[in-house]
Structures are given as structure tokens and as C-alpha cells.
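Two proteins were folded this term; both appear here.
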Amino acid sequence: MHAIHDFTAKLRQPSLAPNLEIYVAWRRELARARAAGEADPEPPAIAPVSINLDVTTACNYRCTHCIDWDILNTKHKHQEEELRDSIRLMSERGLRSVILIGGGEPTLYPRFADFVGYLKELGLQVAIVSNGSRGQILLDAAVHMDERDWIRLSLDSGSNDLFVKMHKPANPKNDLDEICAWIPEIKAANPKVRIGFSYIVVWGGASRDGEVIYENIDEIVLAAERAKAARFDYIAFKPVLERQENGAEVMDPDKADAETTDVVARIRREVDRAKTLATDTFEVYESINLRVLEEGTWKEFTRQPKTCHVQALRQVLTPTGLYNCPAHRGVDKAKIASATAYKDTDSAAQTGYGLTQILDTFDASHECKEVTCLYNGVNWWLEKMTMDPTIDVKAEVGDERLDYFL
């Protein structure tokens, strides 16, 4: 498992131990009180350790494989002052990292680079997931970032031709050549920030709302070569996800045109070829989802505990509300609170009750039964700790990694 995906190790860091202890103690006390027929204890005044932050639904691309297709350009965005108030209160209550991602293209948000600077003033780790179309804005944001931060560009192809077919940029000049040309400039402005090339692997037969999307397995190696030449720090491969009727994002290799084993073999062969390009300064890695797909163990990761504990420690703040998971972004039954969930202490208190309710009512063993969950392992670990009061949380503390992205 790559270190960035080892979420259990991240939560075991000494710097995050207080957050973990507060959560586990609350859940144990809640269970004890309910067993004794007593009133529920007050939710703790804590914020999640990490959030995915959608600052806008505006987007200048129409990617056929986009999981957020239905909410793009719906004119929703955060009001900056309210958002700043929310993030400030969250940082005071334990927030440690913000991933600017999803729902649209974050660099279209007004004063985006200034907002990144504000996040850094609060001492937060910051990541940006972008389509790469606004290189100057990314450069302006990057100068605020440090060696613990990262930028990841969603590119998914190795050739200009396939890139334009998959992403349908509003400006045809936003091709791979133009985007990659910005990487050396960003690196020159701030060599500390890590920049990644994200590649969603799409196989024939995958679809989005019934629309066939473009296969890109044959361009895996070409993309790795391009990423290395453009001075990206890494390329990361992950499988395409589809939105189910219940709102969950799932991986469904059974929809492939060819036999699943044949598709997996092709992906494995191309990723192995890409890995030969790795050096001390260029990394090639796979997501947990892709690794378990290749190993044939992916369905084991769909067996979830009834309670998703991670939703208390990592949440998704969007212009339409606060949600419990990126895999259920925008889904009503996964909504914890409004978009102003943490704008002040009163709002945060109500959000605490909303979290209590969703921990009770959102049955992950049912709602996520087909989700190959990145947090499967850490959820079962948290389930064991919250259910067994004899476990000493302090004894679970491990090494410090200074990585707070969940």
C-alpha cells in the first residue's frame, strides 16, 4: 500500500491522536448511555481532520467520464466570507487539511489563489485537484504552498487527440501540450510543491448515464512518458467509477466489453510497463481500487461495517451542503448539514447533531455494499476500537508522518 493511501497509519500519528481519542471516547460513551437508557451525550466540539472542499460547481470542461456530471455549471458556489469563517472555526477545532476538488473546476472560483493563501495562513495542508486548464491561476496558488502540499491534474490520456475527446474543453487550445507546458513554470516558481498526473483508467463498455466513454488503456505508457518529460513528480492510476441509482460511486468491471480477466491483464501489462519509467524523481503508483481490481480481491473491499466512522473524520463541504463521503457527494441521504455547517459555533453545534444522526441512520453495510471503499480498512479498525472499551487508544499511536490528507 502506498503511504498516501494508508489512512489507518495517518490517523495513528501522534499529532492526530487527540482527534482520534475524542471521537472514540464519544462513541463509547454514546453506546454506554444508550445501553443504560440515558440521554445521549453532547457531540464533541470537533471538526473533521480533513475535508474535500468543492468551492464551485462551475466547469469549463464536459468530460464524458465525469462522476459529477449532473451538478456541473448549476451556478452554486460558496460565499467567500462565510466560507472563510467556516474554515477558520474548523481549523480551531482540529481541521488539518483541505483538498480543493470536485463538483467543478476549483480554479474558476473568484480569487482562488488568494483563498489558497488564506488556507495556508491558517496552517492547513492544502491540495488542489484541477483539470489544468488555468495554468497561471495554478502558478499563483502554488507560490503559497509548501512541501507537504500537492497539486494533481486530471488528464487521463497520453495524446492530445484522446484528451480532447475525453475532456471536451471549452477552449480547444487547452490540450495536453498546453497544460504540460505549465509544469516547469510552476516548478520554477515553487519547487517544493508536488505535482501529479492523474489517470483514470477507462475500459471499453464503461458508461456514464448510458453514454459510452472512451477507453484509454493503450495510452497508459504514453501518459507516463509525457508526465515524466513534463517534470511531474508522479503519475497515479485509478479505475473509472460509475454513479449507481442509489447515488453511490462504484467500480463495475463486469460492464467491460471483454472478459474482466482480459481487461485486468491489459491494464496490468500497461501499468507494469509504465512503472519501468520510475526514477528517484518520478514515481508511478496505483490506487487501492486499481490494485484490488488487478488482484481480483476488489469485492472484499465492499464489505463495510454498519457504521462508517470515517465520515466523522473526513467530510465533503460543497456549495449545496456538507456530505459524509466523496462517494456520496450531493446525495440527500448522505447530507449532514447545509453549506454553512461550520460558519459559527451555533451552526457547528447543529452540525454535531446532524453527524450523530447520520452515524445512526446511514447504514454503510447497505448503502456502500457495492463501493470498493478506500477507507474499508480504517473503518474496521475504528469499529473495533469504538466497540471494545478495553482497547487503549493511546497504545494505538504510531509514527508521525506529517500527512493529514484523508
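Next, the second protein.
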Amino acid sequence: MSINAALSYRRVERPSLQVPPVLPQVTVSVDEAGHLDVRLDAEPYATDKTWERSDLQPIITSIAADLASPVRVEVRETDGAVFTDIVTPDDQPPIEDPAPEPPTAVDTLTATGFTPHAPVAVVVIVAHQTADADGTVTVHLPPSLLATHGSKLLIVPAPAVSPPVEGAA
């Protein structure tokens, strides 16, 4: 029985939203000049940019959308005040997949131009980033990707710098 029968509890159904057991933590520290230090799971987030207070909402929205997960946000002001919130990615109707293509017998990829008997790795590109003036690249990836594949991740020059090896599936 409800305390107030006129106001029954209704849960909003969001079947496409997957909530992880532990939410990603976004911590934002605001300095006296209004600049933001943004960290995702204690790691600096996009250190190549200087964030202003007006950038806070777009940053948090972008992080939640990139992770496709709710995030816990903690904002720490210079006067010691701390604000906490949970931000969920925007509701967007699921994009309808085109009709599935019939299965094919092709399950191999062939490429040429390698040194005979040389070890070769197959790579899937998950992000692009531009090196800074010193040639350093910092890539912020989802913690789950780092946890499951961290020892197998490589940063390599983009194909525009090094031409790709031609291959056919």
C-alpha cells in the first residue's frame, strides 16, 4: 500500500540503457580562475584542452554519451563546496539496423607486402588523436577497454602518415 495513493511510483523504462555495477566517476575541480580539472575514474580527461566553467555541461554530457552509461559526477568548488549528481546519456531512439545481410562464407582477411615469416598483428582502430607539439599523444579510453585489453593496445601512426597494406576480405 502506498502512503499517497494519488501519486503512484512509476519507473521510466529505458531498455537500451545498461547501468554498470559501479558507475564511472567524473571528478571536476574548479580553480579560482574558473578553470576545470576534469578526471574520469581518477585519470586526467582531455588534458590537451583548457576547460572553463561554461564547458562543464557539454563535457559531462559527452562523457556519458561516449561511455553509453550513466556517470557519477562530483564537482568540487574552491570554497570547499561539493556537488554530486548522476548524469545519464541522452535518450535517443535506437537506430534501426538495416536488414541483416545474408551470412557469407568469408571469414578471413588476406593482406600482402609483409616480410616472409614476420609476426603480424590484426588491429581494430578505436580512436584517432593528434599528437601535440612535442609529438606526445594522450588517448582517453573507457576504463573497461583498458582493463580487458590494456596490455594489447598500441598507438601507431595514422594511415595518412604510413600507407596501409592493401588487403581483401
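The chain has a mean pLDDT of 77. The first strand starts at residue 25 and ends at 30. These notes refer to the second protein only.
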